[in-house]
Design a protein that fits this description.
The protein has about 120 residues and is mainly α. The chain has 5 helices and no strands.
Length: about 120
């Protein structure tokens, strides 16, 4: 059975998926802030983006418990999980594993293993 981290990594393979995740988290926090703090929607969205990027201008801030929980959630999820996922995806696009085998190389290795098994008379060859 795959763990939650495996599922998260698999579900964020593209930048499109990461953007959906990012805007989903920010949007959810903005909606919670909108209802909890009774602020205009535009101000709530502004607060969510400023808080997500840990800028925190201080012009808008939560005063209710629910608003503060939403802020803590947002201040931890974005920089500790989503931004590292973006960085990893960027690095994967630019860094090539020198030890990664091509499909042709893998097929050649499998063929060589079959020859070795037959030569050694290993069962299953």
């Amino acid at each position: 059975m795959r763990g939650p981290i495996d599922r998260l990594m698999k579900s964020t393979d593209t930048f499109k998926e990461l953007l959906i995740l990012y805007f989903g988290v920010v949007g959810l926090a903005a909606i919670v802030f909108y209802f909890a703090e009774d602020k205009p929607l535009g101000d709530s969205v502004w607060w969510a983006f400023v808080t997500a990027m840990t800028v925190g201008y201080g012009d808008i801030y939560p005063v209710t418990t629910v608003g503060r929980v939403a802020a803590c959630f947002l201040m931890h999820i974005i920089p500790l999980f989503i931004i590292p996922l973006v960085i990893v995806r960027l690095l994967k696009a630019f860094v090539r594993d020198e030890h990664e085998f091509t499909h042709a190389e893998q097929e050649k290795i499998l063929a060589d293993l079959e020859i070795i098994k037959k030569a050694l008379k290993i069962e299953g060859a």
